[in-house]
Amino acid sequence: MEIVKLNNGVEMPILGYGVYQVTPEECERCVADALSVGYRSIDTAQAYYNEESVGRAVKKSGIARDEIFITTKVWISNAGYEQAKASIDESLRKLQSDYVDLLLIHQPFNDYYGTYRAMEEAYKTGKARAIGVSNFYPDRFVDLAEFCEIKPMVNQVETHVFNQQVEPQKIMERYGTHVMSWGPFAEGRNEFFTNTILKTIGEKYGKSVAQTALRFLIQRGVIVIPKSARKERMIENFNVFDFALTNEDMQEIGGLDQKKSLFFSHYDLEMVQWLVGYK
Ligand SMILES: NC(=O)c1ccc[n+]([C@@H]2O[C@H](COP(=O)([O-])OP(=O)(O)OC[C@H]3O[C@@H](n4cnc5c(N)ncnc54)[C@H](OP(=O)(O)O)[C@@H]3O)[C@@H](O)[C@H]2O)c1
User: Which residues line ligand 1 at a C-beta cut-off of 6 Å?
Assistant: First the structure.
């Protein structure tokens, strides 16, 4: 497994497994399957309501805690120093662990400066080995990164072949922040899995569209956490380290970039109102 060295020296697998939209009932089995396939990084969040299942699966796996990298995120309704602090302890309880490897602010809404201060404290007291943000567009990202004490180690943003985040990645690099992709397959939108360019390039290496798309991001240094509830796809998505795309392949896939979200915009008032109301 390739690793990424975060700006505090912590090593994180460049490929992990995400559990968004995995029900609490299904999640324990999914994480157990992912661990048996070889994944050693799991991405969950308070708002996914499956931290407990992740914790149980990790515990039951018998794999040493320090061999597994766990990420969770503080939701908007838990924002602000006091509430975020309490919610971090609650996440640790659910995850059955004294620490998380990476703690993120899920969305840049509500009192996220207070949240970040609680996370900096969690970092200093050993409850989080690394901290960062998610869904921070360049404007809010720069604002926070300029004025916080501990620079975010990661910004988890929608990143896939149709929304490649090339310019935002450069901005994040100035602060030593790594891009972590959510939705590496755009959840199948825009006919992702039948895209001709990805298909044709993948065929040269005997690889699928999914594998080619992940490889593209990995070669750009982007951390990926594809989700699948199916073990055979978990295996497929894991097998992306035995081939390399050429510069020409990278350029051709680079041409698919539409530089905009296939999901939502934080500049869309209705979407923001929906997000801040979600509990
Ligand atoms: N920070 C945030 O706001 C945020 C937002 C969204 C997601 N995330 C994180 O990012 C992770 C990944 O993103 P995502 O779950 O939204 O979407 P995704 O990984 O882009 O796509 C998942 C979808 O692709 C299908 N799939 C997976 N592997 C496949 C393959 N090899 N061939 C064909 N279909 C395949 C899955 O179906 P099956 O399950 O049926 O295989 C599922 O429908 C999440 O689980 C979560 O941890 C974070």
Answer: 18-21, 43, 106, 134-135, 156, 182-188, 193, 210, 225-230, 233, 236-237
